[in-house]
C-alpha cells in the first residue's frame, strides 16, 4: 500500500520521480516553478531497489517532505516486459531501433499517471509532471504527447469539478543532450540518478537506456558522473 508522511506541506504539483536522469531534470524544473510533491512507484522492475535509492537521494537533495512511494507489483505479475519478467532478457541496446523494444512495460505510464492524478486531486495540486521524452526515448507508445493529451481529457472527465489538473511534460520534445544541458543549467544532481535497465551495482553500459544516456552526455560534451561496466 502507498505510504506517505503524516504531516503534508502544501504542494502545487506532483512530480513522478523514477530516479532516472529525465525525472531528475523534470523535478528540478518543477522545484524552480513551485512547491512539488515527489511520487515514486515500484512496479517490480529489475532495478527497483536501486531506483528507490536514487529517489530517496533526490528527495533528500531537494528537501522534499511531501513524498509518497506506491507499490504496484501487479505489473510484474502481468509481465510482458523485460523490465518486469525475468524470463525475458534485456536486449542489447540499439538507439536506432524503430520497433517497440521488449523493455516496454504494457501501459505503464497510464498506471503511474493514475496514481499521480489521484494524489494531486487529494492535495489540491493543479499539475502532474512527468519526464517523458518522444524523440530520444526507446519508442514507447505511452511516451508520446498525444497520449498525454488524451489522458488529460480523461482526467478532466474523471476528477471533481474545478480540479483542473494538467499533465506537464517539459522534456517531451528534447534530445537527451539537451536534457543534460538543462540539468546542468538547473544544477540538477545527475550524479544521484540511475538509468540502467539491467543492473543495480554498476550500470551495464549496453542496454537502450545506458546507450541513450552515454550518447547524450557525449553530444553535450559533459562527463557522465556514473561508472559503467562497458
Verbal overview:
The protein has seven helices and six strands, in the order E-E-H-E-H-E-H-H-E-H-E-H-H. With 230 residues, it is of the alpha/beta class. The chain has one domain (9-220): Rossmann fold (3-Layer(aba) Sandwich), CATH 3.40.50.620. Helix 1 (21-33) links the parallel strand 2 and strand 3. Helix 1 (21-33) crosses helix 6 and helix 6 crosses helix 7. The longest helix has 16 residues, at 108-123. The termini are far apart. The mean pLDDT is 94.
- CATH H-level name... which superfamily? HUPs
Low-confidence stretches: none
Tell me about the biggest sheet? 6 strands, mixed
Count the DSSP helices: 7
Radius of gyration: 17 Å
Q: Secondary-structure element sequence? A: EEHEHEHHEHEHH
- Enumerate the strands of the largest sheet in spatial order, edge to edge or round the barrel: 1-4-3-2-5-6
Output mean pLDDT.
94
Q: CATH class, anyone?
A: Alpha Beta
Helix content: 25-40%
Q: SS-based structural class?
A: alpha/beta
Strand content: 5-15%
Count of folded domains = 1
Amino acid at each position: 500500500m502507498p505510504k506517505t508522511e503524516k504531516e503534508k506541506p502544501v504542494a502545487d504539483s506532483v512530480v513522478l520521480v523514477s530516479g532516472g536522469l529525465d525525472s531528475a531534470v523534470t523535478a528540478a524544473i518543477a522545484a524552480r516553478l513551485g512547491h512539488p510533491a515527489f511520487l515514486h512507484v515500484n512496479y517490480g522492475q529489475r532495478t527497483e531497489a536501486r531506483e528507490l535509492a536514487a529517489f530517496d537521494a533526490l528527495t533528500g537533495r531537494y528537501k522534499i517532505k511531501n513524498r509518497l512511494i506506491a507499490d504496484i507489483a501487479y505489473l510484474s505479475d502481468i509481465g510482458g516486459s523485460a523490465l518486469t519478467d525475468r524470463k525475458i532478457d534485456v536486449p542489447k541496446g540499439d538507439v536506432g531501433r524503430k520497433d517497440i523494444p521488449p523493455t516496454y512495460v504494457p501501459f505503464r505510464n497510464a498506471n503511474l499517471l493514475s496514481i499521480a492524478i489521484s494524489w494531486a486531486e487529494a492535495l489540491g495540486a493543479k499539475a502532474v509532471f512527468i519526464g517523458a521524452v518522444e524523440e530520444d526515448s526507446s519508442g514507447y507508445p505511452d511516451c508520446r504527447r498525444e497520449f498525454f493529451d488524451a489522458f488529460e481529457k480523461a482526467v478532466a472527465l474523471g476528477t471533481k469539478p474545478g480540479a483542473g489538473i494538467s499533465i506537464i511534460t517539459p522534456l517531451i520534445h528534447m534530445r537527451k543532450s539537451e536534457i543534460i544541458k538543462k540539468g546542468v543549467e538547473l544544477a540538477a544532481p545527475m550524479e544521484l540518478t540511475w538509468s540502467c535497465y539491467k543492473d543495480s551495482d554498476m550500470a551495464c553500459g549496453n542496454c537502450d537506456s545506458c546507450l541513450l544516456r552515454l550518447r547524450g552526455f557525449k553530444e553535450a560534451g559533459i562527463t557522465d558522473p556514473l561508472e559503467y561496466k562497458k
